[in-house]
Predict the structure of Reverse transcriptase.
Amino acid sequence: METPRKEADAFNKHFSKVNTVPRDPIADPRMRRLRKALGRRPIASNRTFEIEFTVTELEIALRKGKPGKATGLDGVTQEMLSHLGPKAKSVLLNLFNRTWYQS
């Protein structure tokens, strides 16, 4: 079994190849709408990449997922993610934030 570090590295390597988000998140209209919905003002520096993801942002992303779509290599379905409880969401959020900061 691989270590969590190796799993995170493999995830990051794959994600960097398939990521289609523009380089400047403030210029992306989707990010502006998300920040407006969250009541935040855009940040005019690289501090955007120093801010942890919040539970609210995770919940918004989970609600945007469409049920019935094919799973990834991990076999996790949208239905599984949409039914996560608070403790599981906290663990998932921690994983995302650790992956974000350690890559």
The chain has one domain: 4-102. The longest helix spans residues 86-102. The CA atoms of residues 19 and 92 lie 19 Å apart. The chain has five helices and no strands.
